[in-house]
Amino acid sequence: MNTEPGHDSSPIRRNLRLSTRDGSWYCVMWSLGESNIQAFGTALGLSAPVVGLLDTVPRVCGSLLQLVSPRAVVKLGSLRRWIVTTAVVQALVFLPLALAALIGGIAAPFIFILAAIYWGAAWACANTWTTFISIVVPRRVRASFFSLRNRWLNLVIVAATLVGGWILAGAKSADGHRGELLAFAALFMVACFSRLLSALYLHRHTERVSIPPGNREVPLRELIGRYRHGAGGRLLSYRIGVEFAIQTSTPFIVPFFLTERGLSNNYTLFGVLVASQILAKAAVLPLWGRIAHIHGPRALLRIGGFALVPLPLLWLVDSSIGYMILVQVVSGMLLGAYELASFLLVFDTVPEHERTSVMSRFNVAQFTATLIGSLIGGALLGLSSGFALVFIASALFRLLTLILLARIPQQVGTGNIPDSVGDELPPLASSLEQAVIPIHDQRSDRSST
Fold first, then answer.
1. Could you give the angle at the alpha carbon of 153 between the alpha carbons of 151 and 154, nearest 5°?
2. Which one, of 391, 386, 276, 257, lies nearest residue 328 by Cα?
3. Distance from C-alpha of 155 to C-alpha of 163, rounded to nearest angstrom
4. Which of 164, 179, 23, 189 has the alpha carbon at shortest distance from 93?
5. C-alpha to C-alpha distances, 257 to 42, 177, 332, 376, nearest whole angstrom
6. How far apart, in Å, are the Cα atoms of 398 and each of 57, 222, 242, 393, 402?
7. Which DSSP category does 258 fall into?
8. DSSP secondary structure letter of residue 415
9. pLDDT band, residue 250 (cuts 50/70/90)
10. Which helix (H) or strand (E) holds 124?
11. In sequence order, what are the residues at sequence separation of 6 or more whose Cβ sits closer than 8 angstroms to the Cβ of residue 351?
């Protein structure tokens, strides 16, 4: 598939091809590997609260490990070298997971440690990559390139997710629990190989500038002072509040599907549920982009913020497959509004030369909030006989975040956002994982206060 907009520089064309190949293999890794870690924990017999924490505790540990990124980049003298190194570490984590699947088990602390190493490498790579890619891809071609690239990557994610679910379902049907574990081993091996291919394509990029001019690590005290009272600080406070509220329930969705709804016996439908949310979000993003263009990103954030409140309660209404797919589609659409608005309002305030440092620290605060939320959700799940209390609590916490939402001023004026911006949001930019790429014409040199 050709994802190259018209331009006349051969090194740039080569980098765009390599970026698309890197992203494609990364998405295969995500679909077959990362997204199946919780499901693997369920297959090993871990309880629902433990499986839920498997999604948050390692992320917090990983967010602490990523703080070495700014200094590591300076030490290596290259953004690309650090990105490739961390991508390889990510890939290698899947080898012991595959071995655990082959031998039929692994102690719970070890799977948490492996997941923490994975997330440490993932975030160290992601935050540096966003700076790197904004240098590699010139501003004049970013919008058209990332629009086409993201559409292609969405197709790769959906296809790989469905194939992964089909493989797990077929293996379990043919050979029971043993076949299920062998299938996880195979998927993790493919995920490892895919991430290594992704790292190879990252390595082959032509790096025009090894480190951005003026690259600096923002001291924590300066960062807190800059955001304490300004518009940026209010927005980040709201985002942290939303992550806390969402993660009271979201980490437990996978065990809810697999145990409460019985999809551990039908991984094909589990794959359909995962893919339907991603596909729905991608389909509706152009509409959200149009709304952001006409009414401004703050209006879009309010749509997403209000709509997120009742979402967990929808799981209490019906247990049919059709209804669950419908809820996934609705949640994907509404999450897209929140994610796109956050994308526009947050990252336009982070200067390129400080981006790796600022986002590393922000992720630590964000993931600390998610850990607290998941611990509360896990405790509620342990106290009750089902998931209802967890979903109700999450809805109540989300309702409280509207107080913080009301305090956010308009940062980007209406009409300053192109109506095609919805196509630019990266396909895996969830509420916890946003890319920091200044794609549209709005400059990122404004004051963040």
1. 65
2. 276
3. 12
4. 189
5. 11, 18, 16, 20
6. 21, 30, 6, 9, 7
7. I
8. T
9. very high
10. helix 108-136
11. 444, 445, 448
Alpha carbons 240 and 401: distance in angstroms, whole number = 9
Tens digits of residue pLDDT in 400-410? 999 999 888 76
Report residue 440's pLDDT band, with 50, 70 and 90 as the boundaries: low
CA 215, CA 357: separation in Å to the nearest integer?
Answer: 9
pTM of the entire predicted model:
0.85
Give the Å distances, CA to CA, from 82 to 169, 191, 199, 374, 430: 38, 20, 11, 31, 24
DSSP assigned state of 257: I
Residues found in the chain:
449
- Residue 343 has, within 13 A of its CA and on its CB side, a CA count of 33
Identity (one letter) of the amino acid at 239? R
Nearest to 359 by CA among 446, 236, 447, 221: 236
pLDDT tens-digit map of 272-283:
999 999 999 888
